[in-house]
Design brief:
transmembrane helix; elongated; 7 strands
Length: 491
């Protein structure tokens, strides 16, 4: 056996670690998304047994992700749980199509600032929403209301014994997660999320704390295959927008995670298009089962690499352990306190906010830092989809502005023609600057306009330069002489 599978021992050990990390996160993401807890386990199982078995990124682990929690919650609230299967299934089909068309590599061209801004916005909304669960209160609907009304909710919690118990348990869970990395190495062999939830569950049972716990429906009872009638909802523009948001965010998060995982090991590199097909296959199956959408999850993937995994067998086996747990021990979930799961997601949401990156970007690339912040704020203030679109629009506008850099150098020797040298990229974005500089040249002197230094000349600039030359020549001076244009002129 070891001869045929030389890395079985390392992969087996790594699979147990990933299982212990994934279990509380699968349950927590499901509860925070407003769906039965078992559906999070179903997505984790599919991520291991289906996506994990396919080609793409050999050590990356997939499952329900905190990054999609806010979007899933909004979709379930607006369209209902049966429609979630339609959304996830269609998302999976689109991902498969993009992978087959070899579009996966192009996701690496998405501005990193937009992706980090997207994750930061999700993190802020996730933290604010889950703090209500920590305090045993119901969260408002909109992201902005979640943040604005949070202080009042925390103040109200002080006056309730039940809310205080919930708040204490949630705060203790967060404290364990923060302090766990400072524990001795032998203690840290138990993953922090599992330790935090385990300790919170024991505390709630030992002291009889009046806190809400996970509702259990059973694995088969929680499955929600979408009825055929729900596919008629695809005619709604809002639902289609939600599907596009799911597809873009899930694909971008998975492929960015793959790039990060590749930096953690020296083994086989990710095949981006095949990874996108694998993610799509997993999401298509999750949609047919009515489960949560999946993405590659960097926390589980990093745990897999750090635990010594060598092949994709580790992530497949982690799916087996999740399946066995869901089939044999589902009632254990009923003992898990909701505030503990909320604490885990508050901690996960905090990790989504790239504070160090924002500080670094502000020092070196303030434009990128602005895009990150505006994207995050837009997601909180408006919605996920619109916030991402605003971020992408800003990134495109910034790139276009920077790409249109142009320089005008004027050489006037006092006698003879004035020589003007244009270099760079002449686009309509810098047209006012170009014309202001040319119109400031002496009207009573001949001009030689040198365009050989231009890399690009668009149609608007070509037309404007021709019109300026005609006006300048009409003032009674010699016609403007233009050098041979050795540029790529837009038609």
């Amino acid at each position: 056996m070891l001869t045929k599978f030389p890395h079985l021992r390392q992969d087996f050990a790594a699979s147990l670690v990933v299982f212990l990390v994934a279990l509380p996160l699968c349950v927590g993401v499901a509860v925070a998304s407003g769906v039965p807890a078992e559906l999070g386990l179903v997505t984790g199982i599919v991520g291991g047994l289906v996506t994990g078995f396919m080609r793409g990124s050999s050590l990356q682990v997939s499952g329900p992700a905190a990054g999609l929690t806010v979007l899933v919650f909004e979709a379930v609230r607006e369209y209902g749980l049966p429609a979630l299967g339609v959304i996830v299934l269609t998302t999976g089909v689109l991902q498969i199509a993009m992978g087959v068309l070899k579009l996966g590599r192009y996701f690496r061209a998405i501005s990193v600032s937009v992706v980090e801004g997207m994750l930061a916005g999700i993190g802020l909304v996730l933290i604010a929403g889950q703090l209500y669960s920590v305090a045993g209160a119901k969260a408002p609907v909109s992201g902005l209301d979640k943040i604005v009304e949070l202080p009042g909710a925390l103040v109200d919690a002080v006056g309730s014994t039940k809310a205080l118990a919930s708040l204490a348990l949630g705060a203790a869970t967060i404290a364990v997660l923060v302090l766990w990395k400072r524990m001795p190495a032998k203690v840290r062999t138990v993953p922090g999320p599992l330790a935090a939830v385990g300790l919170a569950t024991l505390a709630a049972l030992a002291f009889g704390l009046p806190v809400a716990t996970v509702e259990v429906q059973g694995l088969l009872g929680s499955l929600q295959p979408p009825p055929l009638s729900e596919f008629g909802e695809l005619a709604q523009v809002g639902l289609l927008g939600t599907i596009v948001a799911f597809t873009l965010i899930a694909s971008a998060e998975s492929l960015f995670s793959a790039a990060a995982v590749d930096r953690l090991h020296s083994g086989q590199r990710t095949e981006y298009d095949k990874e996108l097909v694998a993610q799509g296959a997993g999401n298509a199956l999750c949609g047919m089962l009515g489960a949560l959408p999946m993405t590659a999850v960097i926390v589980r993937s990093a745990a897999n690499v750090q635990a010594g995994a060598r092949t994709k067998a580790s992530r497949v086996m982690h799916g087996v352990w999740l399946l066995l747990f869901a089939a044999l021990l589902p009632n254990v979930l009923a003992y898990i306190p909701i505030p503990a799961l909320a604490g885990i997601l508050v901690h996960a949401g905090a990790k989504l906010i790239p504070v160090r990156e924002i500080v670094s970007l502000w020092r070196e690339h303030r434009g990128e830092a602005l895009i990150l912040v505006v994207t995050a704020v837009s997601i909180v203030a408006v919605s996920m989809f619109e916030g991402v679109l605003i971020g992408l629009a800003l990134a495109v506008a910034k790139t276009a502005w920077e790409a249109s850099h142009i320089k005008l150098e004027v050489v006037d020797k006092g006698a003879g023609p004035v020589q003007a040298y244009l270099s760079g990229n002449a686009t309509f974005l810098r047209l006012p600057k170009i014309l202001d500089s040319l119109e400031a040249l002496p009207q009573d002197r001949p001009v030689e306009l040198h365009l050989s230094g231009l890399h690009h000349l668009d149609h608007a600039c070509r037309t404007a330069l021709e019109n300026w030359a005609e006006r300048h020549s009409a003032a009674g001076t010699e016609p403007v002489k233009v050098t041979a244009i050795q540029v790529t002129a837009a038609k």
